Amino acid sequence: MAAGRGVTIIPENAELTTVEAASALNVSRPYLIKLLDDGIIPHQKVGKHRRIRMEDVVAYKARDDREREAILDQLVGEAQEQDMDY
């Protein structure tokens, strides 16, 4: 908000479209579809359309953030071991 960007509040039990979920994760819709098809993020089909629970989107984001942080910590540790000034 301080940066002048809008804020959207979505209930945790809301079901999102693939466009909404991709936007919430800041990924492309085709990449999100791959995550859904690979079973990485659970979803339901309503007719031909996929619906993703907001709580599953939040859980994936948290898991992805933790994994990214662990990889970065490992890289920093390796760089420090090699005296690369990180």
UniProtKB/TrEMBL annotation:
InterPro entries: HTH_17, SinI_DNA-bd. Residues 16-63 form the Helix-turn-helix domain. GO terms for molecular function: DNA binding. Pfam families: HTH_17 (PF12728). This is Excisionase domain protein.
